[in-house]
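Summary for the lay section of the report: proteins are chains of building blocks that fold into shapes. Here we show the chain for Ribonuclease E and then a coded description of the shape we predicted for it.
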Amino acid sequence: MDRSIIINVKTREKRYAVIENGKVSAIRIRQPGDAAKVGNIYLGKVADVKPGINAAFIDIGGIRHGYLHISRLPAFVNSKNSNPTISAYLSPGQTVMVQVKKDETGQKGPLLTGIIELSGEQIVYLPEGKYTAVSKKADDADRNKWRNRVRKALEPQEGIIVRTAAIHAGGDGWRDELKCLRLRYKCLLEKAAQLKAPAVLHEKSTVEAEIFRELVRLKSGTVIVDDAEALARLKALLAGRPELDWSFELYSGKQNIFTRYRIDRTLEEALKRVVWLENGAYLVIDETEALTIIDVNTGKYTGTTDQAETVLKTNLLAAKEIGRQLKLRDYGGIILVDFIDMQCDEQRAQVRAVLEKELENDEKQTRITGFTELGILQMTRKKTRKSLPEALLSVCPVCGGSGKIESPETLAFRLERELWEAPYADYEAVLIECTQDVKDCFCGETDVHLKRLENLLGMKLIFHITRDPHPFYAIRQFGTAAGLAAKGKDPN
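The coded shape description reads as follows.
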């Protein structure tokens, strides 16, 4: 498989893109002040305790307090209390070591855990996790063997996750990592004892760390970087990893590297609501606070045979593109897909199989739960950070993020009501600034409504047309007709 990673780190905004078989499969962008915090460890201070939801809000130094549920406290995990409350473990002002599980999104603060995870190449160490797991990529026999093996090396309160790399490597390399990770945790405890909360104990997420994970996941290909120092650091990260076959190139062209490799075009398309498929059908993608909704439409595609075959072909094509868009845009959480109605379970199974295949090599854990009675496909994808659109786009100040604004008709009728309430008896004329579409709706054909209202109000209405992409109006000034006519455009 042809793979490459294009890296743009010369400027303050850090970007990289993964290309597989000639198509961009992922774009990741990190802006200053918006770095991912997943994996970071903090000494936090309990800001508030909520017994009603068995959770606490923790100040870790950010704009929003983090959310910590009782089920993510080591003391609760190791307790035999069958009916505990959060108040039994935490109180306001108390300090607590926490790790970020999910970045803040929208109006929600970061999701926190008190069960710290320290990652190595072969294992993940949980100092107080009391949990043992083995990579699901191993068969059941190997997984049982590894569970029994690692448990013997753990203290009662400790936990461990055995990675696929440990299974492939064999041997006792994981034991050496366990010793190193135990020492790292001891250092974190010592550091926490010396600091005042809130404070950062460990920062994990960096762009180069993310790229390294991609290098390990994809195994081989070409890395093209526009910065010599970053190139040298990435080469150093691969030292001693002969199983990874990557070639490196330094890009020194004047054109931005994303533009040179046509990634900017893909990025622009990844921010659009509508995604066109190659047969003329299209997807409509809406991301909300609670979930992501994808609607499949036949569009211009009508097929050449019967309707059922047209529907199936469109849904199969859509399933493949949906898998790509989920990875490209990095959507997470609950995802609902409204495929075009299919009449039999066999066709639904075909569509599901295509989507599952497209997500086979996804870096994020995904779970497809199946179709509902209404024919909606339900799935989840692990969410650890903002999606690409959420990170790059801001809420429209006009529509407030709804995607809808008031129509010219609505504003024209509101203007009429305001004029009825205005002190028109004291003035000869009024100057109104508005867009052309609002004026047209207000005045009507051949200015029939304008003339009627002027007669009823006994006042001349003078309009000044302004250019604005959104329908708009404002009552600017009352005065004489002659004085205001010079400031506006008299329609008569």
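Put simply, here is one thing we learned. The chain has a mean pLDDT of 88.
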